[in-house]
Design a protein that fits this description.
- The protein is of the alpha/beta class.
- The protein is built from three helices and 20 strands.
- Strands 1, 2, 3, 5, 6, 8 and 10 form a seven-stranded mixed sheet that branches.
- It starts with a helix and ends with a helix.
Length: 286
């Protein structure tokens, strides 16, 4: 009987502790507005090499922090006999690296991976990288040149936010979407070309790009978010006449041209026919 009572008490204590933990986690979720993070099912553990801390998963490795002192970095392809596929969030945060060579095993660059890596001057993203998350290169104040591979289909929100000296970047033909404020405050960008594949440009995409002169939009039906040229006084949109970009210029009093060799104008919206308006009014009354 004593053993039974002891077992019962032990069970009650465990249940109570589990309940308290659950309640505590719930309180944290309510306070922060986010769910308590749980490791993915394939997560195995953490580790450290001479140059990196990392997370080990069942089939891959994620780099979580650069610990080395070299300014020119070549990322590893394998750790613990597993491919290094992911550059984790804040991996290079405030690290004094000037260049990073991304290995052929990398497929993912997580959000804010290079946030405030403000000594980074150039980056080449190879074709094997297929996903870049929000703010991946935000506030890289020395970043001048970016080479994007063909694996990228979207540039996320705030991707190159406050890359103040960014001058050279070409958007691959595979890219279909430009995120919100993707190039905000890139103060030395002078020209951007979006091929026919780009069908969506997020709001305030070029806010504060004070040197921007031309944005070419080849896709006639591309959608443009609000205020893409806020604080960008000299920009001209190069696009086909009567395209969605042309209409956007008319609606927002922006300058447009069909070619850089032709002087830009501010298009006007077509006037609504008086007869049509009167007919519509009569129908509403009826």
């Amino acid at each position: 009987m004593k053993k039974f009572l002891l077992l019962l008490m032990a069970f009650a204590m465990c249940f109570s502790l589990c309940s308290c933990t659950a309640l505590l986690n719930k309180a944290k979720e309510m306070a922060t507005g986010t769910e308590t993070s749980k490791p993915p099912e394939d997560f195995i553990g953490t580790g450290e090499t001479e140059k990196y801390t990392y997370e080990e998963y069942k089939t891959y490795i994620k780099l979580t922090e650069y610990l080395g002192e070299e300014t020119e970095v070549v990322l590893p392809t394998v750790i613990d006999s597993k491919p290094v596929t992911t550059i984790g969030s804040l991996c290079f945060y405030e690290k004094p690296v000037t260049s990073v060579t991304i290995s052929e095993s990398i497929t993912t660059i997580e959000g804010s991976a290079f946030y405030y890596a403000d000594a980074l001057t150039q980056i080449e993203i190879p074709n094997n990288v297929t996903f870049i998350d929000t703010r991946a290169f935000g506030w890289c104040n020395a970043l001048e040149t970016v080479i994007l591979g063909n694996g990228i289909t979207e540039l996320p929100d705030f991707c190159f936010n406050h890359c103040e000296v960014l001058k050279n970047i070409e958007i691959p033909a595979n890219v279909t979407k430009i995120g919100v404020r993707a190039f905000s405050y890139c103060e030395q960008l002078t020209e951007m070309v979006f091929s026919n594949s780009v069908n969506s440009i997020g709001e305030r995409a070029f806010v504060g790009c004070t040197a921007l002169e031309y944005l070419t939009i080849e896709n006639e039906s591309a959608t443009l978010g609000a205020a893409i040229f806020e604080e960008t006084p000299n920009a001209v949109i190069i696009a086909p006449e009567n395209s969605s970009a042309y209409n956007y210029c008319a609606e927002n009093a922006l300058r447009w041209s069909s070619s850089k060799s032709i002087d830009a104008i501010t298009p006007e919206l077509p006037e609504v026919s008086t007869e049509i308006s009167e007919e519509s009014s009569r129908q509403e009354i009826e």
